[in-house]
Amino acid sequence: MQNIKKIACINDFSGFGRCSLSVALPILSVCGVQCCSLPTAVFSNHTGFESFFKLDLTDSFTEYTREWDKLGLHFDAIYSGYLGSKEQVTLVTDFIDRFKTSDTIIIVDPVMGDNGKLYKSFAKETADGLKTLVKKADIITPNLTEACFLADMPYVSSPSEKTLRELAKRIDPDSQKRTVITGIVSSDSVITNYISCENEFSVYESIADVPSRSGTGDVFASIIAAAAVNDIPFTDSVKIAADFVKQSAEYSHRMGIPDTDGAVFEPFLYKLGEIFA
Ligand code: PXL
């Protein structure tokens, strides 16, 4: 039997609202990957709610990872998500420099905002820090808002294919990365994922006539991370992730679940397990 792959997953832990580590843990597990959690903060619920409790873990990061160093851990991938400050971005950069080996895949989900705006209490200087962090990545999974910010281009809600290509080129001028700009919704309910991989551009489209939901970017990026360590081709992994998010979002909508509760993915996890079996 092949060894179980390990991903160091740097993200916050949100108790309610189906995002960050609460999503990465079940998804990586069902995909047969060990999720080694490195929590950046503990939130009672994500910041899309009226109020939230936050316990910042920046001061614990160095001691926490020193123990991993002592254990001599090796990761098949390092996957970062929500980071709460520029200082955390620097800590993650140092972590990558310390733990990356020649066979470690770096996945950066540059979580910072949606619908043209930064998330509540997300500082612009943290977003600026993420511009530097993405340079270290092999795979990045920005949504349209994040892609526009990374590319220093104004936000457009319905970009043309030419604009998407320009975004991808500006983010990764040398085409060294696998990039997917996720969940671009057009007026006729077509959801486009724009893929840039090895100098080739392609789109994966689906129809979903439902509003966007919290945490779907985390679901998407977690599947991409699990697929990457399982050597699934990037374009195939985008299809798997997009179909899974669509199914969960449509089900949640049908069930009348509030958008802030995130996408109800639990009933479909077994199907993801079958794909990765
Ligand atoms: O899904 C991204 C995310 C992660 N973590 C926290 C958030 C959000 C988005 O709102 O608030 C704490």
Report on this model:
There is one protein chain. With 277 residues, the protein is an alpha/beta fold. The protein has one domain (5-141, 214-276): 3-Layer(aba) Sandwich (UDP-N-acetylmuramoyl-L-alanine:D-glutamate ligase). It has nine helices and eleven strands. The protein has helices at residues 21-30, 61-70, 86-99, 124-133, 144-150, 161-171, 216-229, 234-254, 269-276, and strands spanning 5-16, 33-45, 54-56, 77-80, 105-108, 113-114, 117-118, 139-140, 178-185, 190-197, 200-207. It has a nine-stranded mixed β-sheet with strand order 3-2-1-4-5-8-9-10-11, sandwiched between helices. Strands 6-7 form a two-stranded antiparallel sheet. β2 (33-45) and β3 (54-56) form a beta hairpin. The protein is globular and about 55 Å long. The mean pLDDT is 96. Bound molecules: 3-hydroxy-5-(hydroxymethyl)-2-methylisonicotinaldehyde (PXL). 3-hydroxy-5-(hydroxymethyl)-2-methylisonicotinaldehyde binds next to β1 and α7.
